[in-house]
């Protein structure tokens, strides 16, 4: 099968390319703005890559879609600070450009796997009417099911939600193309994947990367880990290897079980507040990564408007219901929160540009093997509890 990965150069795309090239017979074609994270993939047989901007290379991308059996679209702006800074660019890329890809897939009758986001669910019922609920902390308010849960977004003036809205509308359009034109689509909703090669904190970058990179960068530089609005909000962190395992099964689509389906991909057992994440990371850094004499980062509180600017509002909590992926794909995440954080920290220390190599004293080092990516060098069977 020929698989087209649009947005192959990103964190998820680069891992997915390596996985497909190493463990399947698929031919992989990739397209992205950058190949910085593709050094391994570029050396593997079966991979072709084109560097370019989707907005300037429509004909070339159309030809790639024509050549493919399945199109995996991962192209998006996906950092909350960017949604606040440049909401229209988020809409234009994440909705309009992705819509064009979907339309070409409709015309050419190609299967489309579209990356969406857990952000489509927005906030929990408890965030708006917690006082009226018997137990606002009951996790059942935050367990999101692909086909049953309603979406709760903030007001228009909080433009963070433009991302969620754009992703949601794209999902609805794909569903409608399926109904009218028979488009074969699958939607993926990732829940906070972390791991080696996650976005780094660099000054050239527009918008900030996500919290894990902020914290890791603060630890490496001995600066401040900032808790936005107290860090009380919660996320379920998913190790990239678990995520890629699920995505690879979706590409394989045994018996067509993924046709017209939406899949949450996440680790429900790995829920943690951002405050706890900061303390865990700092404790782990001190125990396993810290260089002699190195100053340990301070953990401080910051206001969200100060950190992100006007227009920010947050998802308070989100736990994926993964029963569909478990039943249809026989997929199960294996990495617990401890392993997920530790392996991701080790990966950051190894891959982030300009970071001095650290003698990591951890035992589960997925980053030392040349095969890296946690795909082949670390056997989850060995370390899973
Ligand atoms: C982001 C994207 O918006 C989603 O599309 C994507 O699916 C998701 O990441 C993901 O990784 O799957 P979010 O989890 O809000 O969503 O991204 P972060 O920027 O990592 O924020 C997580 C929490 O940490 C938020 O409560 C934020 O306010 C807080 N934060 C962030 C801090 O407390 N300190 C920081 O330095 C940065």
Summarize this, please?
Helices cover 39% and strands 16% of the residues.
Characterise this structure.
By secondary structure, the protein is of the alpha/beta class. It has a domain at 2-198 and 238-270 and 316-336: NAD(P)-binding Rossmann-like Domain (Rossmann fold). The chain is built from 14 helices and 15 strands. It has helices at 11-23, 39-42, 58-67, 80-85, 87-108, 125-129, 161-181, 211-221, 240-252, 274-288, 304-308, 323-329, 337-351, 380-383; strands at residues 2-6, 27-32, 47-51, 70-73, 111-115, 143-144, 185-190, 193-194, 224-228, 234-236, 238-239, 261-265, 271-273, 298-302, 319-320. Helix 5 packs parallel to helix 7 (161-181). The longest helix is centred in the N-terminal third of the chain and has 22 residues, at 87-108. 46% of the residues are buried. The model is unreliable at 363-385 (pLDDT under 50). The structure holds uridine-5'-diphosphate-glucuronic acid. Uridine-5'-diphosphate-glucuronic acid binds at residues 78, 80, 117-119, 190-193, 210-211, 214, 226-228, 231, 233, 235, 274, 314-315.
Task: Identify the notable features of this structure and list them briefly.
single chain; 385 residues; alpha/beta; Rossmann fold; seven-stranded parallel β-sheet; two-stranded parallel ribbon; 14 helices; globular; disordered C terminus; binds uridine-5'-diphosphate-glucuronic acid
